Amino acid sequence: MYKYFIRPLVFLLDAETAHHFSFAMIRIFSRLGLSGFFRSMFVIKDKRLKRKVFGIEFDNPVGLAAGFDKDAVLYNEFSDFGFGFVEIGTLTPKPQEGNPKKRLFRLLDDEGIINRMGFNNKGVFDAVERLKKKHRVIVGGNIGKNKVTANTDAAKDYLICFDALFPYVDYFVVNVSSPNTPGLRELQDKKPLSNILLKLKRANTLNAATNKVKEKPILLKIAPDLTAEQLMDIIDIVKETQIDGVIATNTTLSRKGLKSHLTIAEEKGGLSGKPLTQKSTEVIRFLAEKSNHAFPIIGVGGIHTAKDALEKLQAGASLVQLYTGFVYEGPGLVKRINKAILENDSAQSMAT
């Protein structure tokens, strides 16, 4: 129904307009009391889907990636579509408009999206006010730096966001891999990245002691365009800083093999969707094998089918996240992935 009726209508709108329209409709449906209907349609409750990763128990391993609910507006409502966790953000200390519009483009022939949003958000303190309400789902906080903040001061921005969100999110994601903030990816280099992560680790210990709770897991989100040498550095950094895991991957700058017309394909920004499927899976496999499965990995990038999700899990991911696949395939994709995981687990149990 989604692909044949809803999506064609939504895709008549500009991509960013369609995003805001979809949010408005979800909010209206929720206020009309339709949450129970959506849960009956899309949520699978089965204890075999539960996963305990970096100390958190997830109802199922399929999450909504950061960038969709930047300002923590509908994180509870998205759980009605079957997600086991929702990652809000990327949030920055101060509100920022992001890059000039038009900045979001569909590549229909490739089932991809190019975005150069530029961390548009209303600021971490605005999001905190909405995060104070009761959570029906595990919530991750994806944090970044403001565009005007120099890289030499980047750690301050991450710390502001971390301290503000600490009481209200279940885990943190350090985003240094977006291609849409000038110079941000330079923070993936070993020295500046280790500096940021070590400062966040200290803040984690302090916040936990102050709030008399456990420390929150800290994950690092990386680009798919890193070399083998850079990926080995990431493994070393995770070991040295003792953060809790990696999210692989963010969007890519590569335009290799695209079918879409050059006027769209050559737009600046990060590319997500089907063109990223294989590349992100290869990064997951590399990290898992080279680290000897030393830390959890959340796999994201080009998951448009249940098979795509299973491949990422088999490559070494503990959990997966959707973004572009959710746009193209609709909420039914979450249910199909969870059903496939159950079927795959049953098949493996019978084989053994």
TrEMBL record:
<feature type="binding site">
    <location>
        <position position="142"/>
    </location>
    <ligand>
        <name>FMN</name>
    </ligand>
</feature>
<feature type="binding site">
    <location>
        <position position="70"/>
    </location>
    <ligand>
        <name>substrate</name>
    </ligand>
</feature>
<dbReference type="GO" id="GO:0044205">
    <property type="term" value="P:'de novo' UMP biosynthetic process"/>
</dbReference>
<dbReference type="GO" id="GO:0005737">
    <property type="term" value="C:cytoplasm"/>
</dbReference>
<feature type="domain" description="Dihydroorotate dehydrogenase catalytic">
    <location>
        <begin position="49"/>
        <end position="342"/>
    </location>
</feature>
<dbReference type="InterPro" id="IPR001295">
    <property type="entry name" value="Dihydroorotate_DH_CS"/>
</dbReference>
<feature type="binding site">
    <location>
        <begin position="323"/>
        <end position="324"/>
    </location>
    <ligand>
        <name>FMN</name>
    </ligand>
</feature>
<dbReference type="GO" id="GO:0005886">
    <property type="term" value="C:plasma membrane"/>
</dbReference>
<dbReference type="GO" id="GO:0106430">
    <property type="term" value="F:dihydroorotate dehydrogenase (quinone) activity"/>
</dbReference>
<feature type="binding site">
    <location>
        <position position="175"/>
    </location>
    <ligand>
        <name>substrate</name>
    </ligand>
</feature>
<comment type="similarity">
    <text>Belongs to the dihydroorotate dehydrogenase family. Type 2 subfamily.</text>
</comment>
<feature type="binding site">
    <location>
        <begin position="250"/>
        <end position="251"/>
    </location>
    <ligand>
        <name>substrate</name>
    </ligand>
</feature>
<protein>
    <recommendedName>
        <fullName>Dihydroorotate dehydrogenase (quinone)</fullName>
        <ecNumber>1.3.5.2</ecNumber>
    </recommendedName>
</protein>
<feature type="binding site">
    <location>
        <position position="249"/>
    </location>
    <ligand>
        <name>FMN</name>
    </ligand>
</feature>
<feature type="binding site">
    <location>
        <position position="273"/>
    </location>
    <ligand>
        <name>FMN</name>
    </ligand>
</feature>
<feature type="binding site">
    <location>
        <position position="175"/>
    </location>
    <ligand>
        <name>FMN</name>
    </ligand>
</feature>
<dbReference type="Pfam" id="PF01180">
    <property type="entry name" value="DHO_dh"/>
</dbReference>
<keyword id="KW-0665">Pyrimidine biosynthesis</keyword>
<feature type="binding site">
    <location>
        <begin position="115"/>
        <end position="119"/>
    </location>
    <ligand>
        <name>substrate</name>
    </ligand>
</feature>
<feature type="binding site">
    <location>
        <begin position="66"/>
        <end position="70"/>
    </location>
    <ligand>
        <name>FMN</name>
    </ligand>
</feature>
<dbReference type="InterPro" id="IPR005719">
    <property type="entry name" value="Dihydroorotate_DH_2"/>
</dbReference>
<dbReference type="InterPro" id="IPR050074">
    <property type="entry name" value="DHO_dehydrogenase"/>
</dbReference>
<feature type="binding site">
    <location>
        <position position="90"/>
    </location>
    <ligand>
        <name>FMN</name>
    </ligand>
</feature>
<feature type="binding site">
    <location>
        <position position="180"/>
    </location>
    <ligand>
        <name>substrate</name>
    </ligand>
</feature>
<keyword id="KW-0285">Flavoprotein</keyword>
<keyword id="KW-0472">Membrane</keyword>
<feature type="binding site">
    <location>
        <position position="221"/>
    </location>
    <ligand>
        <name>FMN</name>
    </ligand>
</feature>
<dbReference type="GO" id="GO:0006207">
    <property type="term" value="P:'de novo' pyrimidine nucleobase biosynthetic process"/>
</dbReference>
<keyword id="KW-0560">Oxidoreductase</keyword>
<comment type="subunit">
    <text>Monomer.</text>
</comment>
<keyword id="KW-1003">Cell membrane</keyword>
<comment type="function">
    <text>Catalyzes the conversion of dihydroorotate to orotate with quinone as electron acceptor.</text>
</comment>
<comment type="pathway">
    <text>Pyrimidine metabolism; UMP biosynthesis via de novo pathway; orotate from (S)-dihydroorotate (quinone route): step 1/1.</text>
</comment>
<dbReference type="InterPro" id="IPR012135">
    <property type="entry name" value="Dihydroorotate_DH_1_2"/>
</dbReference>
<feature type="binding site">
    <location>
        <position position="302"/>
    </location>
    <ligand>
        <name>FMN</name>
    </ligand>
</feature>
<dbReference type="InterPro" id="IPR013785">
    <property type="entry name" value="Aldolase_TIM"/>
</dbReference>
<feature type="active site" description="Nucleophile">
    <location>
        <position position="178"/>
    </location>
</feature>
<dbReference type="InterPro" id="IPR005720">
    <property type="entry name" value="Dihydroorotate_DH_cat"/>
</dbReference>
<keyword id="KW-0288">FMN</keyword>
